[in-house]
Amino acid sequence: MFTGIVTDLGTVSTLDHRGDLRARIATSYDTAGIDMGASIACSGVCLTVVGLGDDWFDVDISAETVSKTNVGDWAEGKRLNLERALRVGDELGGHIVSGHVDGVAEVVDMVDEGDSTRVTFRAPDALARFIAPKGSVALNGTSLTVNEVDGCDFGINFIPHTKSVTTWGEVAVGDRINLEIDTLARYVARLQDWA
Protein backbone atom coordinates (compact mmCIF):
# COMPACT_ATOMS: atom_id res chain seq x y z
CA MET A 1 0.00 0.00 0.00
CA PHE A 2 1.04 3.56 -0.70
CA THR A 3 -0.20 7.08 0.07
CA GLY A 4 0.34 8.83 -3.24
CA ILE A 5 2.89 11.16 -1.66
CA VAL A 6 5.93 11.11 -3.95
CA THR A 7 9.22 10.80 -2.04
CA ASP A 8 11.77 10.70 -4.87
CA LEU A 9 12.15 11.40 -8.56
CA GLY A 10 13.78 8.45 -10.27
CA THR A 11 15.14 8.17 -13.78
CA VAL A 12 14.90 5.20 -16.12
CA SER A 13 18.54 4.25 -16.79
CA THR A 14 18.05 1.19 -18.97
CA LEU A 15 15.24 -0.87 -20.45
CA ASP A 16 15.94 -4.48 -21.37
CA HIS A 17 13.34 -6.45 -23.34
CA ARG A 18 13.73 -10.09 -22.33
CA GLY A 19 10.71 -12.35 -21.60
CA ASP A 20 9.44 -9.47 -19.46
CA LEU A 21 10.64 -5.87 -19.52
CA ARG A 22 13.42 -5.12 -17.03
CA ALA A 23 13.96 -1.50 -16.05
CA ARG A 24 16.86 -0.06 -14.07
CA ILE A 25 15.79 3.05 -12.18
CA ALA A 26 18.27 5.53 -10.75
CA THR A 27 17.21 6.83 -7.35
CA SER A 28 18.38 8.99 -4.46
CA TYR A 29 16.89 6.48 -1.99
CA ASP A 30 19.41 4.82 0.33
CA THR A 31 19.32 1.47 -1.44
CA ALA A 32 21.02 -0.21 1.55
CA GLY A 33 17.61 0.14 3.24
CA ILE A 34 15.70 -1.50 0.37
CA ASP A 35 15.18 -5.27 0.52
CA MET A 36 15.10 -7.51 -2.51
CA GLY A 37 11.41 -8.14 -3.20
CA ALA A 38 10.36 -4.75 -1.81
CA SER A 39 7.53 -2.90 -3.53
CA ILE A 40 8.14 0.56 -4.97
CA ALA A 41 5.49 2.57 -6.81
CA CYS A 42 7.04 3.83 -10.05
CA SER A 43 4.76 6.54 -11.49
CA GLY A 44 1.89 4.73 -9.79
CA VAL A 45 2.77 1.18 -10.82
CA CYS A 46 3.59 -1.12 -7.88
CA LEU A 47 6.76 -2.96 -8.96
CA THR A 48 8.96 -5.51 -7.19
CA VAL A 49 12.67 -4.84 -6.66
CA VAL A 50 14.70 -7.64 -8.29
CA GLY A 51 18.16 -6.04 -8.26
CA LEU A 52 19.97 -3.35 -6.28
CA GLY A 53 23.03 -1.14 -6.65
CA ASP A 54 24.42 1.89 -4.84
CA ASP A 55 22.03 4.34 -6.50
CA TRP A 56 19.64 2.18 -8.54
CA PHE A 57 17.16 -0.66 -8.40
CA ASP A 58 15.89 -3.06 -11.05
CA VAL A 59 12.27 -4.13 -11.60
CA ASP A 60 10.71 -6.69 -13.93
CA ILE A 61 7.52 -5.57 -15.67
CA SER A 62 5.13 -8.11 -17.20
CA ALA A 63 3.50 -7.70 -20.60
CA GLU A 64 0.14 -7.41 -18.77
CA THR A 65 1.41 -4.40 -16.79
CA VAL A 66 2.86 -2.80 -19.91
CA SER A 67 -0.50 -3.21 -21.70
CA LYS A 68 -2.56 -1.64 -18.89
CA THR A 69 -0.28 1.29 -17.98
CA ASN A 70 1.91 3.93 -19.61
CA VAL A 71 5.05 1.83 -19.02
CA GLY A 72 5.17 1.23 -22.78
CA ASP A 73 5.92 4.97 -23.13
CA TRP A 74 8.99 4.78 -20.87
CA ALA A 75 12.38 5.46 -22.44
CA GLU A 76 15.88 5.90 -21.08
CA GLY A 77 16.04 9.26 -19.30
CA LYS A 78 12.31 9.28 -18.44
CA ARG A 79 11.72 10.66 -14.96
CA LEU A 80 9.36 8.76 -12.64
CA ASN A 81 7.50 9.59 -9.44
CA LEU A 82 8.69 7.12 -6.79
CA GLU A 83 7.19 6.08 -3.46
CA ARG A 84 8.30 3.33 -1.11
CA ALA A 85 5.60 1.11 0.41
CA LEU A 86 3.73 2.41 3.44
CA ARG A 87 4.93 1.09 6.79
CA VAL A 88 2.80 0.76 9.90
CA GLY A 89 3.01 4.05 11.76
CA ASP A 90 3.85 6.17 8.68
CA GLU A 91 1.84 9.35 8.12
CA LEU A 92 -1.01 8.88 5.67
CA GLY A 93 -0.69 12.24 3.94
CA GLY A 94 -2.52 11.39 0.72
CA HIS A 95 -5.05 8.57 0.44
CA ILE A 96 -4.86 4.77 0.33
CA VAL A 97 -3.25 3.83 -3.00
CA SER A 98 -2.63 0.22 -4.06
CA GLY A 99 -0.28 0.78 -6.97
CA HIS A 100 -2.64 -1.29 -9.15
CA VAL A 101 -3.31 0.99 -12.11
CA ASP A 102 -6.89 0.83 -13.38
CA GLY A 103 -6.27 2.43 -16.75
CA VAL A 104 -4.61 5.23 -18.66
CA ALA A 105 -5.99 8.77 -18.80
CA GLU A 106 -4.94 11.39 -21.35
CA VAL A 107 -3.99 15.03 -20.75
CA VAL A 108 -6.40 16.99 -22.96
CA ASP A 109 -5.90 20.59 -21.78
CA MET A 110 -3.65 22.74 -19.61
CA VAL A 111 -4.22 26.30 -18.39
CA ASP A 112 -2.03 28.33 -16.04
CA GLU A 113 -4.01 29.93 -13.21
CA GLY A 114 -1.66 32.18 -11.29
CA ASP A 115 1.32 30.05 -10.27
CA SER A 116 -0.76 26.88 -10.46
CA THR A 117 -1.69 24.86 -13.53
CA ARG A 118 -5.17 23.45 -14.17
CA VAL A 119 -4.86 20.17 -16.10
CA THR A 120 -7.84 18.43 -17.70
CA PHE A 121 -7.66 14.65 -18.11
CA ARG A 122 -9.86 12.29 -20.10
CA ALA A 123 -10.55 9.01 -18.30
CA PRO A 124 -11.52 5.79 -20.07
CA ASP A 125 -15.33 5.44 -20.25
CA ALA A 126 -15.36 2.46 -17.88
CA LEU A 127 -13.55 4.42 -15.14
CA ALA A 128 -15.19 7.85 -15.43
CA ARG A 129 -18.11 6.94 -13.14
CA PHE A 130 -15.68 6.37 -10.27
CA ILE A 131 -14.31 9.93 -10.39
CA ALA A 132 -16.17 12.54 -8.32
CA PRO A 133 -15.63 16.24 -7.62
CA LYS A 134 -13.55 16.69 -4.46
CA GLY A 135 -12.77 12.96 -4.52
CA SER A 136 -9.30 11.46 -4.74
CA VAL A 137 -7.44 9.88 -7.64
CA ALA A 138 -3.86 8.72 -8.06
CA LEU A 139 -2.28 9.96 -11.28
CA ASN A 140 1.23 8.71 -12.06
CA GLY A 141 1.38 7.71 -8.40
CA THR A 142 0.46 11.13 -7.02
CA SER A 143 -2.53 11.52 -4.67
CA LEU A 144 -4.64 14.34 -6.05
CA THR A 145 -8.01 15.99 -5.43
CA VAL A 146 -10.45 16.24 -8.32
CA ASN A 147 -11.77 19.76 -8.89
CA GLU A 148 -14.54 19.14 -11.40
CA VAL A 149 -15.94 16.38 -13.57
CA ASP A 150 -17.62 16.71 -16.97
CA GLY A 151 -18.44 13.31 -18.45
CA CYS A 152 -15.13 11.51 -18.92
CA ASP A 153 -13.11 14.71 -18.38
CA PHE A 154 -11.92 15.83 -14.98
CA GLY A 155 -9.73 18.66 -13.75
CA ILE A 156 -6.86 18.80 -11.28
CA ASN A 157 -5.08 21.92 -10.04
CA PHE A 158 -1.31 21.54 -9.60
CA ILE A 159 0.29 23.95 -7.15
CA PRO A 160 3.93 25.04 -7.63
CA HIS A 161 5.19 22.69 -4.87
CA THR A 162 3.66 19.63 -6.54
CA LYS A 163 5.09 20.66 -9.91
CA SER A 164 8.58 21.06 -8.40
CA VAL A 165 8.83 17.78 -6.43
CA THR A 166 7.12 15.46 -8.94
CA THR A 167 7.08 14.97 -12.70
CA TRP A 168 3.97 17.18 -12.99
CA GLY A 169 6.12 20.18 -13.95
CA GLU A 170 6.98 18.30 -17.18
CA VAL A 171 3.47 17.24 -18.28
CA ALA A 172 2.15 18.11 -21.74
CA VAL A 173 -1.12 17.79 -23.65
CA GLY A 174 -1.34 14.30 -25.15
CA ASP A 175 0.61 12.59 -22.34
CA ARG A 176 -0.75 9.23 -21.23
CA ILE A 177 -1.12 9.07 -17.43
CA ASN A 178 -1.48 6.08 -15.09
CA LEU A 179 -4.87 6.36 -13.36
CA GLU A 180 -5.85 4.57 -10.17
CA ILE A 181 -9.34 5.34 -8.95
CA ASP A 182 -10.08 5.73 -5.26
CA THR A 183 -10.53 2.35 -3.55
CA LEU A 184 -13.57 3.58 -1.62
CA ALA A 185 -15.26 4.72 -4.86
CA ARG A 186 -14.63 1.29 -6.37
CA TYR A 187 -16.34 -0.50 -3.47
CA VAL A 188 -19.26 1.91 -3.24
CA ALA A 189 -19.96 1.42 -6.96
CA ARG A 190 -19.68 -2.36 -6.61
CA LEU A 191 -22.19 -2.35 -3.74
CA GLN A 192 -24.59 -0.21 -5.80
CA ASP A 193 -24.32 -2.74 -8.64
CA TRP A 194 -25.49 -5.43 -6.23
CA ALA A 195 -28.36 -3.37 -4.79
Question: What does the secondary structure layout of this molecule look like, with pairings?
Answer:
Layout: E1 8-17, E2 21-26, E3 39-42, E4 45-52, E5 56-61, H1 63-68, E6 79-84, E7 103-113, E8 116-122, H2 125-128, E9 136-139, E10 142-145, E11 148-150, E12 153-158, H3 160-165, E13 176-181, H4 183-194
Antiparallel strand pairs: 1-2, 1-6, 2-5, 3-4, 3-6, 4-5, 7-8, 7-13, 8-12, 9-10, 9-13, 11-12
Question: What is the helix fraction of residues, given as a range?
Answer: 10-25%
Morphology call = globular
Q: What is the number of independent domains?
A: 2
Instruction: Give the total of beta strands.
Output: 13
GO biological process, one term: riboflavin biosynthetic process
Function: Catalyzes the dismutation of two molecules of 6,7-dimethyl-8-ribityllumazine, resulting in the formation of riboflavin and 5-amino-6-(D-ribitylamino)uracil.
Keywords: Repeat, Riboflavin biosynthesis, Transferase
Catalytic activity: 2 6,7-dimethyl-8-(1-D-ribityl)lumazine + H(+) = 5-amino-6-(D-ribitylamino)uracil + riboflavin
Task: Describe this structure as you would to a colleague.
This protein has two domains: about 10-85, Elongation Factor Tu (Ef-tu), domain 3; about 105-195, Elongation Factor Tu (Ef-tu), domain 3 (Beta Barrel), CATH 2.40.30.20. About 15% of the residues lie in helices and about 40% in strands. The chain has helices at about 65-70, 125-130, 160-165, 185-195, and strands at about 10-15, 20-25, 40, 45-50, 55-60, 80-85, 105-115, 115-120, 135-140, 140-145, 150, 155-160, 175-180. The chain starts with 7 loop residues before the first strand and ends with a helix.
